[in-house]
Design goal:
Length: 70
């Protein structure tokens, strides 16, 4: 989801179905000296936001709030 990608920090984005843009982004990635650090930041972001343990904890907290409010 593009809304979760901080373009230039944790990943790269390009318009859907724009092959030329994809090619350009891939060329930029291959030339980028910071691709390793971006990849590491992207992995950390994904683990923080999408790791099953974190997702379950956030859902449990939400359910607890809803139950407490009712």
């Amino acid at each position: 989801h593009v809304e979760t990608i901080d373009n230039g920090r944790v990943g790269w984005t390009f318009p859907v179905r724009d092959v030329d843009a994809l090619i350009s982004v891939l060329q930029d990635v291959l030339r980028s000296e910071e691709r390793t650090s971006r990849a590491e930041m992207g992995r950390a972001f994904a683990l923080e936001h999408y790791d099953i343990t974190n997702v379950v904890a956030r859902h449990e907290a939400l359910y607890a709030q809803v139950l407490a409010a009712s």
